[in-house]
Write a structure and sequence with these properties.
The protein has about 90 residues and is α+β, with helices and mostly antiparallel strands. Helices cover about 15% and strands about 30% of the residues. It is built from 1 helix and 5 strands, in the order βββαββ. β2 and β3 form a beta hairpin. It is globular, with a radius of gyration of 12 Å. The chain has a single domain, classed as Conserved Hypothetical Protein Mth637, Chain: A (2-Layer Sandwich), CATH 3.30.1200.10. It comes from Tranquillimonas rosea. This is UPF0235 protein SAMN04490244_102365. Pfam families: DUF167. InterPro entries: DUF167 (IPR003746), YggU-like_sf (IPR036591).
């Protein structure tokens, strides 16, 4: 993971919130970008065996300031467009 800190997304960490995002697995570096109200998450992990999804949840947890155990992937386990719920 890059040494650059992820953006502060703690304002999105309300319990029950659903975050829609676009994933880019196999990227050249890990990054979370917020553009036009849409989250784009770039991870270096490959899109195989759930590695990219695990990396996305780990990065989101850090950016949201919540433990990984409070995040669940609701939709998009095998696609690029995902919905993650904060429990």
């Amino acid at each position: 993971m890059s040494s650059k800190r992820p953006p502060d997304l703690s304002h999105l960490a309300a319990p029950g919130a659903e975050l829609r995002l676009r994933a880019t697995p196999g990227a050249s570096r890990d990054a979370i970008v917020e553009e036009a109200g849409q989250l784009r998450v770039h991870v270096t992990a490959p899109p195989a065996d759930g590695k990219a999804n695990a990396a996305i949840l780990k990065m989101l947890a850090k950016a949201l300031g919540v433990p990984k155990s409070r995040l669940s992937l609701v939709r998009g386990a095998s696609g690029r467009d995902k919905v993650v719920r904060v429990d």
